[in-house]
Amino acid sequence: MNLVSAGIPAVWRILTWIAFAILALLTWRRAAWHMMRSAENANVFLAATFVVLGLWLIHAGIQPGLEFHLVGATALTLMFGPWFAMFSLALVVAGITAHTGQYAAYAANVLVMGAVPVGVSWAIYRFVDRRLPNNIFVYIFLNSFFGAGFAAASVGLASTAFAVLCGTYRFGYLLDNYLVYYLLLAWAESFNTGMVITLLVVYRPQWISTFDDGRYLRPR
Description:
single chain; about 220 residues; mainly alpha; Arp2/3 complex 21 kDa subunit ARPC3; two-stranded antiparallel ribbon; about 75% helix; about 5% strand; globular
């Protein structure tokens, strides 16, 4: 869902912009910006951001604000960590906003399409990291396949809940015409993210900040 300005009441616009300002401040203070001094890191980050922007531009919709597209949040989170993933998605939403002109909905879109899936992806990664064995198959299947699917489903649930709270659409309409299809889209998100992370783990593990060769591939 790419929320439109007309569908968000004034009070929700204010609340979402306040929440976005807090999130932006946290990102600014906690992101390891020194990592971007490396030309390779900066190039990979920008390339990944443009790829996700391209995925968002390939979309389908049934009503204003009710659009379907891949999210890419889990891949960004596993590659760069939560704060750079949030920064990347904020840039992606900025590009989409400049294209659509829905400036008042920018903060809401960053929260629903960025903060929610990044938070879910990072929570799953931390749980797997702390509770389960250090195994490459556990990392790939739970963090990328399962994590991406669950993160995409969380976007559908969050956007549905927000649209209902704003009074934009009735829950019954969203359940029949939007949410069920977004949950199906989660399978595509899961497959694509899992495939990308698997290829990166094999050929470019240095591009994935949450992956460590010595930890996941150590001799038994």
